[in-house]
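Changelog note: in this version the structure field was regenerated for every chain. One regenerated record is shown below for reference.
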Amino acid sequence: MPTSQMGPVSQRGPVQQAAPAQSVYPPQKPNVATPANKNAPEERAADRNLPDASPPPAQDIQALEQQPIHLFDEQKLEEGRSLLNKVLTASVVKVQEYPVDLPTVLKLVEKQNLFLQDSTINAKVENNRFFRSVSDLLPDVTGTYNQSRFQGAIQIFGSQTLQVFQTRLVPQATASWVINPGGRDVFTALAFKQRAREAKYLLNQTLQEQLTQATIEYYELIAAGVNVANVRANIQEVQSQVALNAARLKAGVGTKLDLERARSQLIEREQELITAENTLAKAQQNLLSRLNLDPDVALLPPQVRAEARILIPLNVDTQQLVDRAMEKNPTLKAIQQEIRALGYEGKAVLADAIPTVTLQAYINGTGPEIDKLGLGRFGGFAVQSTLFNGLGTTLPLDYRTRRLLVAQQKVRLKEQERLIQTDVINAFLDSRAGAKSIFTAQELLGVAEEAYRLSFGRYKAGLGINVDVLNAQTALALARVRVVRAIFDFNEAQVRLLKAVGEVTSSHILNGMKADAFTQKTKSP
């Protein structure tokens, strides 16, 4: 496999390689409509039928529901098939066409994937919590202002009273600073810092997961499109067989059984076309959901081709891949940061055993008016300990909880390391087997093409039988499916291997990685 792109070695129609298409990102505005997340207000559902197909009349649908099935009446069977095709064609909803290639898909994921947006916000929240914990190390300054008014009456002589009004103003400014000699606030801030880093690794993990899934779904879209093209090619071949058998029957050298067998196979191929188009539509919907686009958008690759892409060379030793994964995989990095955060939380719990010192000072004034205030000042400190909370059991239990959580995360880290090791090895083995399967499927496709050509030629010349032609065409259809499936399986295995190593980036998906990248010691970010 000398190049990084593998494709069919001979010209075989739908699975032939083509030149790489240029990226269309930023998305160009299509002629019909722009695939934004808002539909045009003037667009109605009734206006979205295919241009060549008129809306299905009600009588056609009723006729289809009431149409009896005549298995032995050729004319009635043909009428039922035509009516069904008419209804199915007319009921297809016209969608907005949107050309995409792999670079466009990757950029759309980075820009508007919902899972990625949620993870980005979570990273910002954790970073903000870290800065909030740092602010706890600083003194607090508060200000208060109280104003009260006394109203009463004082009796002077006999029943004569004098109304008394007295205003009292009490402004005060207070500064307090809680000092933890054991460093509890410092350890708490360090724990939040580790969790902020953990959130960044989780963000990277989410990005790699979404890029991986989007790439696989794009490959599924390509494979579904190639299968549709292959089934249509199969239908054309079977139609030629039907025409040939009809001509032979009319000339008196064929049999009606041969014609019915060819027509039966044509019906099977038409059913396969419906299934293939349904698979293509589902692949489009999966990718649309990943890209956060409207479901009425039709994603159209510039050129539908089956192309194998080598992202990680197959001559790299598996131990080198595993070592790289242990160093670069963001899932492992996130667990390591959680272990460090729990360690700092344990130190913060132990720091609570040392009494807390609170320094406080304030200045206030009291008087009837602002310019007649009597000033007062206060300064002092208080010492408080939580060592004996819960009769001295709270602190040891809290510390034990942190130690148990650390042990749990270490077990999870080992479990994740084994899982990543297994994923790397399995994906690498699948890649090697997939590469061999591609060449094998291509060779079988060449044999099936030649067998069909010979059998159809012999039958056309009157030297063969119709059953051989039908069997050869069936074998050819299966061979085409195998080639597409082999290429898709190889591409999926390569993406999964890239994901297991922890190196999923747009650049690596588009250009792959070199073998020397796994032999050099890299530093962790």
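Spot check on this record: The chain has a mean pLDDT of 79. Residues 34 and 343 are 52 Å apart (CA to CA).
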